[in-house]
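Below sits the subject:

***
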Amino acid sequence: MNWINNVVRPKIQGFLQKRDTPENLWIKCPETGEMVFHRDLEQNQWVVPSSGHHMRISSQRRLEFFFDGGVFETIPTPEVSVDPLKFRDERRYTDRLKDAKAKTGMDDAVIVATGSVKGLQITTAVQDFAFIGGSLGMAAGEAIIAGLDHARKTGTPFVLFAASGGARMQEGILSLMQMPRTTAAIRLLREAGLPYIVVLTNPTTGGVTASYAMLGDIHIAEPGALIGFAGPRVIEQIIREKLPEGFQRAEYLLDHGMIDMVVHRHEMPGTIARICSLLMSEPVKAKPVPVAPPEPAEEAEETADADA
């Protein structure tokens, strides 16, 4: 009886018991509702293969996808005062920062890096929406300015991947001051004759759209990205009218002349490299074309004799 209770019954229960399924094994496409295996998404740079929907990705992944071989060097950014206004709403601002840092492994919403893209040296800044909605605060502003200054000193193009909900309210007027500060840094880059290219990702809204995100020489957007100042729901409530289909999406803005092009994530490095090559008059590194080896002379003579 003990043998049945201690051996047989636990084995049967273990066989019939439902096994735990790992979380996030399957991911649902927001557009079609299709369930996609997470490894397929990873291999496709987090673009749903069937619908082409571009999922949000971390700043680290974006840099790996953008630079040649995923190799890049991060640029240190200045430190700023933490919680200068001692802000608190439902929680302390310092607690929100700690949670965001633990969640993303970042110091703030912007990472600046430099590396090679198709053989061209480029300086890049990436906003991460996972860090308090990619909001613009003092640290993010200092990071963007540091990236612009590095590009100006090294003579490299500057590429910004924007993803933000706007200015960070917990820093009040200090966050709004980053709008004119970044604008002034862009002006210095332009005076140096260096390209400033903006890639608008989903979403790019608020004070970021009202400042440096719309001051580029070339504006590129990922497919389906939401781009605007206020959200469509707020606009509908204000004007009390139904907005057009696809309003504030990348394709709508392209049709109405607000951006220059909509580019798939897979084609982003090559497109930006070609634009920088044209603006900088530097050649793009092309992939080597395999050439068939020449036929040996002896074999060619034997073939000619046989034909004769």
Q: What stands out?
A: Residues 138-154 form the longest helix (17 residues).
